[in-house]
From TrEMBL:
Protein name: Malate dehydrogenase
GO MF terms held by the record: L-malate dehydrogenase (NAD+) activity
Every Lactate/malate dehydrogenase C-terminal domain range: 172-335
The reaction(s) this protein catalyses: (S)-malate + NAD(+) = oxaloacetate + NADH + H(+)
Residue stretches making up the Lactate/malate dehydrogenase N-terminal domain: 28-170
Family from the record: Belongs to the LDH/MDH superfamily. MDH type 1 family.
First-listed, main subcellular location of the protein, grouped into a coarse class: other
Residues involved in NAD(+) binding: G33, A34, A35, G36, G37, I38, G39, D59, N119, I142, S143, N144, M253
Catalytic residues in the record: H202
PANTHER family: MALATE AND LACTATE DEHYDROGENASE (PTHR11540), MALATE DEHYDROGENASE 1, PEROXISOMAL (PTHR11540:SF71)
Binding site for substrate: R106, R112, N144, R178
Enzyme class: oxidoreductase
């Protein structure tokens, strides 16, 4: 028989608390939907993040297995698992950052909006828990359709009297990650050196890459612009079709979500100039929500940057994006207020 000796959770937590009180910061992070295709690799990446001292993994299935597995990684974060609705409140209490990849993904032939009926209810339930147990947490919404689930979350928080628009962030980082990769391929340079702002929303034509603002500065032919715009807008569908019924992007999404969560944590720590694109409450356009570059700080999205100069084709794209976004936002709002 193996020896029964186990390190008690209390001593691990003591360690985590020392870490957060001492020099190095430590944040408490929950992943809701942690046993899913995105949730599992995202949980692993968050366990590897030195800014995380406590990691709560919540799901309605398989949370104990994923937790046991990840807890064996010899990194600093203390990992705890929570299974089922009756453990949601314990999962959320005291969290600084809550990441939500819970819900069903697309199958070939589906749009993100086809997921609305199932995912809207899941996001509502989870956000009611957040409003009750950690109303001051930063919330990263991954569940699709993001263009509607972020407005749903906002309405739930308004109803509960806890809404702070700076702390509610829709995750559109995968669009930026894809844009950087595809643009780097066309330019023949290292994707880590490329930065493409992607604005609007997170579905089809609402995904608007601003190719005129790419860093490092460069120019594209008409054909390159139409190839890149189309590929960036349909990158998700490319993966859905390649997976042929087994789901949508999970590994690249977990990478993107972890990159965005890390930026949120660096903002919370007080780092200067942490800037990422995100779908947030916004006055950049006449719509109540819009994705643009935001500066992340101690209170969340502290500054929302304007669109900057757009060329003619981007202006046309913006009008198309706004038209579709308006409907998706309204659909989310009325899911709660109707
Ligand atoms: P998945 O089906 O592999 O995993 C979803 C997980 O959520 C499952 O483990 C499931 O048990 C869990 N879940 C279901 N109901 C729950 C509830 N009430 N509370 C907690 N957990 C619950 O799906 P996958 O591939 O991980 O995708 C998750 C979501 O992320 C989908 O809505 C998908 O469309 C979205 N997504 C968003 C992207 C973005 O860029 N924002 C990119 C890719 C996917």
């Amino acid at each position: 028989n193996p020896p029964k000796l186990q390190v008690g959770e209390s001593s691990l937590l003591k360690l985590a608390n020392c870490r957060s009180k001492g020099g190095a910061p430590g944040f408490k992070v929950a992943v809701l939907g942690a046993a899913g295709g995105i949730g599992q690799p995202l949980a692993m990446l968050m366990k590897m993040n030195p800014l995380v001292s406590v990691l709560h993994l919540y799901d309605v299935v398989n949370a104990p297995g994923v937790t046991a597995d990840i807890s064996h990684m010899n990194t600093g974060a203390v990992v705890r698992g929570f299974l089922g609705q009756q453990q949601l409140e314990n999962a959320l209490t005291g969290m600084d950052l809550v990441i939500i990849p819970a819900g069903v993904p697309r199958k070939p032939g589906m749009t993100r909006d086809d997921l609305f009926n199932i995912n809207a209810g899941i996001v509502r339930t989870l956000c009611e828990g957040i409003a009750k147990c950690c109303p001051d947490a930063i919330v990263n919404v991954i569940s699709n359709p993001v263009n509607s689930t972020v407005p749903i979350a906002a309405e739930v928080f308004k109803k509960a009297g806890t809404y702070n628009p700076k702390r509610l962030l829709g995750v559109t980082t995968l669009d930026v990650v894809r844009a950087n990769t595809f643009v780097a391929e066309v330019l023949g340079i290292d994707p880590r050196e490329v930065n493409v702002p992607v604005v609007g929303g997170h579905a089809g034509v609402t995904i608007l890459p601003l190719l005129s603002q790419v860093k490092p500065p460069c120019s594209f032919t008409y054909e390159e612009i139409s190839y890149l715009t189309d590929r960036i807008q349909n990158g998700g569908t490319e993966v859905v079709e390649a997976k042929a019924g087994a789901g949508s992007a999970t590994l690249s999404m977990a990478y993107a979500a972890s990159k965005f969560a890390d930026a949120c944590l660096r903002g919370l720590r007080g780092d200067a100039d942490v800037v990422e694109c995100s779908f947030v409450a916004s006055q950049v356009t006449e719509l109540p929500f819009f994705a643009t570059k935001v500066r992340l700080g101690r209170s969340g999205a502290e500054e929302i940057f304007p669109l900057g100069p757009l060329n003619e084709s981007e202006r046309v794209g913006l009008e198309k994006a706004k038209k579709e976004l308006a409907g998706s936002i309204q659909k989310g709002v009325s899911f709660i207020t109707k």
